[in-house]
Amino acid sequence: MSAVEAKLAEMGLSLPGVVPPLAAYQPAVRSGQYVFTSGQLPMVDGKLPMTGKVGAEVTPEEAKELARTCALNALAAVKSVAGDLDRVARVVKVVGFVASATDFTGQPGVLNGASELLAEVLGDKGVHARSAVGVAVLPLDAPVEVEIQVELTEA
After folding, report:
1. CA distance 142 to 27
2. Residue 67: strand, helix, or coil
3. What average pLDDT does the chain have?
4. Which is the most buried residue in 45, 55, 63, 114, by most CB within 10 A?
5. Crossing angle of the two packed helices 3-10 and 107-122, in degrees rounded to 10
């Protein structure tokens, strides 16, 4: 077990299987020392635990937890192409999308769920640049979607 996965276990979490793509793309691709994930939905055992807009059917607190799940799914996607999460030199960038009610403006707080998980699991290597974007709708009516870009250490 990698040190990163041991840290997840200490937190009471485990790395899920990679979420299969919903269309014509790969969950993650590697280019040189970088891994880019596709947008990860908060899928758990092949299903979305909630659907709807944040600020309407989904509370900001629920959405923050869903963003945490997205980040965990993104780490699984990274591992699928990197082979070992201990090779993560740093998370470079996180981009998050929040399906928002028209008057909802708390997208950064929602995306803190993903950012906080990455920092907790990876320490300083998990601190990153980030964008938090409000959108009208996401695939499958998901409330949140997160993608990450990771730099790897030399093999």
Report:
1. 17
2. helix
3. 97
4. 114
5. 120
SS3 53: coil
Helix (H) or strand (E) holding 28, with range, is strand 28-31
Q: What gap in Å lies between CA 86 and CA 11, rounded to an integer?
A: 17
What is the C-alpha separation between 148 and 114, in angstroms, rounded? 10
- For residue 129 the two structure tokens come to 């640049």
Residues in the chain, total? 155
Cα separation, 49 vs 142, in Å, equals: 9
| Positive or negative: CA dihedral 126, 90, 128, 48 | negative
Q: How far is it, in rounded angstroms, from Cα 146 to Cα 41?
A: 7
pLDDT tens, position by position, 22-66: 899 999 999 999 999 999 999 999 999 999 999 999 999 999 999
Side-by-side strand order, sheet with 28-31: 28-31, 34-37, 144-152, 88-99, 129-135
How far the first Cα of the chain sits from its last, in Å, is 17
The two beta strands, 88-99 and 129-135, are parallel
Q: Is 111 helix (H, G, I), strand (E, B) or coil?
A: helix
Are the C-beta atoms of residues 112 and 65 closer than 8 Å to each other? no
